[in-house]
Amino acid sequence: MTFCLGITVDxxxxxIADTRVLSGNECLVARKxxxxxxxxxSFFVMTSGLRSLRDKILLCFEEAxxxxxxxxxxxxxxxxxxxxQVRKVAAQDREALEESGLKFNCYSLVGGQGTADSAHxxxxxxxxxxxxxxxxxxxxxxxxASGYGKPILERSLHSKDSMLYAYKVGILAFDATRLCAAxxxxxxxxxLYSKGxxxxxxxxxxxxxxxxxxxxxxxxxxxxxxxxxxxxxxxAFPACGPVVG
Length: 245
Hints:
This protein is 37% helix and 28% strand. The longest helix is centred in the middle third of the chain and has 25 residues, at 75-99. The chain is built from 6 helices and 12 strands. Strand 1 and strand 2 form a beta hairpin. The chain starts with a strand and ends in an 11-residue tail after the last helix. The strands form 3 sheets. Strands 10-1-2-11-12 form a 5-stranded antiparallel beta sheet. It is globular, with a radius of gyration of 21 Å. Helix 1 (51-67) packs antiparallel against helix 2 and helix 3 packs antiparallel against helix 4 (163-180). The protein has one domain (3-234): Glutamine Phosphoribosylpyrophosphate, subunit 1, domain 1. With 245 residues, it is an alpha+beta fold.
């Protein structure tokens, strides 16, 4: 499984990805992000699914992107070009994968800004090659293990929030997923893009670097449960005497 999270807020983009890859009985560390930038464009690609599909699609995309320079002016054109490579690899590999009991399951997040884009954009590309744009109403998307981090994002995140706030919420979503999904873990890769900068900031975190945040959040959640208004909850224990929190 994989955890890749893309967040778009008014100020920019936040991308967070784990690096755990399971291959048979082996557990490997490998990047699930790729970044591309040059004069007037900057974007990232994050993927979930079979590692072999990710590597082949990216290689095909990089060859196509080097030829199709007009695509760099708008991010949706980059996404169209990327989607073409997804369909190309699907046509080549889907049948063989299905004969082996595997699915063509490459999901992708593409975020960034092109020369002619007035602002940054974030897209999700499906295994079929179609795509959707992630917008302000739900300003995030998770591919891979999506259920564990979703509650905090749904409760806490808005498109008007700052990049710093979105970054903090994203770290907590990753931490919740890491605790619950055995195949998601550190190191954690982070991508930060500020609107109009055309520069992608990349950072990798090890477990020990963020341990204090995880422990602080766990203590805060326990205290919040203790502080919950208890009038109606305590009414469920009429025969048990005083309820001790």
